[in-house]
Amino acid sequence: MKIKWREQWRALVLAVDRMWGGRSEWRGRGYGPPGEEDDSVVDGLPMDHLSRSALNGFSTCLLDRACTSRRDSRWLEEQLLSDSARLIPLWDSKNLFNGEDALQPVFFLPSEIEDMLHEVTLTAFLGVDGDVSYVAFEVPSREYAETLAEYGSFRDLKSVGALLDERESNLLAYARGIIHWHRRNRFCGDCGSETMIMDGGHMRVCTNSKCGMQHFPRTDPAVIVLVSRGDDCLLGRQPSWPKGMYSTIAGFVEPGETLEGAVVREVWEETGVEVESVHYHSSQPWPFPGSIMLGFHAHASSGEIRLGEDELEDARWFSREDIRRGVAEGAVRLPSHITIAYRLIEDWFNSDGRSELRKVVERG
Ligand SMILES: [Zn+2]
What we know:
Mean pLDDT: 88
Oligomer: single chain
Distance between the termini: 50 Å
Low-confidence stretches: 18-39
Bound molecules: zinc ion
Radius of gyration: 22 Å
Helix content: 25-40%
Shape: globular
Number of strands: 17
């Protein structure tokens, strides 16, 4: 049975809107830490992981990715050249925006950039939304990138994501992630020969006839976890972060490791804290440059912090009052509200039912 993904998502978003009177209201009314009842419901059912992940930034994809049709080169060409196509430029892993405070991503009709399209060598079909097809492409040279300055400026999506409509931010994240993958896979990892784009940009094939290896877009799994103990949660900071910024513990999953095993290892390596239980929370695409963040809540069985030699310059146990006071005084900063790190902290913070982190941050 064909899955009508776009319709499913729309139904989900409508259910969220009905339940909480809008997505922003839903934030902060999520799932408590392990062991506590999940009292959030959508249409009479407990909030599931699909719904919870939809609250993370860059996560609201309404496209039909047309996985079968995109293998048909004639169909693809029609999509690309049609005036119902919207072309999304990427240059130096940055997306194009106009405006300053109210940023709008810039998409092009094929006819608007006809000359440039003759030079473009890297495109990836993203999917269709109604009658509109979305295609990401890499601007072919710095000269062309400079000519696009009349339409706006190229910016890092990570730094401006909070200013965007959530569905547009997902589209731009998808475009950024897949173009980045292509840039890093121009040569076959097996024999070293050049690879060529296939399936509308969802596969590369080695051009060496003796090899012919197929390469598919990859996303690197990384775990991220809110560890709690009693009334406290464990947050750490990296030396490169802005002053006062603290966040959840995170790290990449290694070969031969479960996601939960990676949580236990990362927390131990970075903070010396032992974790005794791990519960999945939600996920978030994180194309900076090519990850998916897999979020967890966990309980600690030990409280003593012993920092590892790499990554963190500090880690602490924070009570809700520590966070409330730290944010109010400007001594503590939390990650942007579009990150899964914030959502993990928020759901833990709000689970005592006394106050909402969103209000604490807005006041701070
Ligand atoms: Zn090869």
